[in-house]
């Protein structure tokens, strides 16, 4: 058994001092714990973009998070509450608050975090170097040959008389589909077209007669 405890008088026992600062220290410790929980410090702002609705979004690098994937896009209004001096320094570097110039999909806002400024920071993420533009070889423009350009199968001159517009008759063929005869005429403007034999007899009969005389074989009588 442990020895009995001796009784002590009030004078021998002594008074336990009262700490007046206990309450204030407890409050400070509570505030420190609350601040340390889910509190992220804005180190610098590296980029900005506009959402479709015109909201200005800024890419934030948080203190202690150096990996690019840890950077988050935050709305301007949220940074004004806890990191206004960093925001002002970024605007000063740009020469003023950026203005929306063209509509393009903006970034999504990062997770909600309490912001705390650590002062003006001049360190910024270097922009990636622009890749040199590759020279493209121009492809030669395809042009029609004079033969293809002048071949207009359905072209015929205006007017009822073609005698002075036909250069000569190239040939006469029979169409295997409809069985009709067609003449290929060479015009004085260099074009070549296919015309039914009936239209040739009606509008340039002398030219057709000349063609037949050149190709028919006559017997001496």
UniProtKB/TrEMBL annotation:
Q: How does it assemble?
A: Component of the NuA4 histone acetyltransferase complex.
The cellular component terms of Gene Ontology attached to this UniProt record, alphabetical and capped at eight, are:
heterochromatin; nucleus
Presence of keyword Nucleus? yes
Instruction: State the InterPro entries in the record.
Output: Chromo-like_dom_sf, Chromo/chromo_shadow_dom, Chromo_domain, Chromo_shadow_dom, Chromodomain_CS, Heterochromatin_chromo-domain
Keywords from UniProt, A to Z, are: Nucleus
Q: Which CDD domains match?
A: CD_CSD
* Domain Chromo, residue spans: 40-102
Species name for this entry? Answer: Penicillium alfredii
Subcellular compartments:
Nucleus
The name this protein carries in UniProt is: Chromo domain-containing protein
* Native organism taxonomy: Eukaryota, Fungi, Dikarya, Ascomycota, Pezizomycotina
Major subcellular site: nucleus
Tell me the domain of life.
Eukaryota
């Amino acid at each position: 058994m442990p020895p009995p405890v001796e009784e002590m008088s009030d004078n021998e026992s002594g008074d336990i001092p009262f700490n007046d600062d206990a309450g204030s220290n407890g409050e400070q410790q509570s505030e420190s714990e609350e601040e340390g929980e889910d509190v992220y410090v804005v180190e610098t702002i590296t980029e900005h973009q506009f959402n479709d609705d015109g909201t200005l979004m800024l890419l934030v690098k948080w203190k202690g998070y150096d990996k690019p994937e840890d950077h988050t896009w935050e709305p301007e209004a949220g940074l004004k509450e806890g990191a206004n001096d960093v925001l002002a320094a970024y605007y000063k570097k740009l020469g003023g608050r950026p203005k929306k110039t063209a509509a393009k999909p903006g970034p999504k806002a990062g997770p909600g975090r309490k912001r705390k400024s650590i002062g003006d920071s001049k360190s910024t993420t270097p922009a990636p170097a622009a890749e040199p533009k590759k020279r493209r070889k121009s492809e030669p423009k395809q042009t029609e040959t004079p033969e293809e350009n002048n071949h207009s199968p359905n072209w015929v001159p205006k007017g009822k008389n073609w005698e002075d517009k036909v250069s000569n008759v190239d040939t006469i063929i029979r169409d295997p589909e409809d069985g009709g005869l067609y003449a290929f005429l060479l015009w004085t403007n260099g074009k070549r077209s296919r015309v039914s034999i009936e239209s040739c007899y009606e509008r340039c009969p002398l030219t057709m007669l000349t063609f037949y005389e050149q190709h028919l074989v006559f017997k001496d009588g």
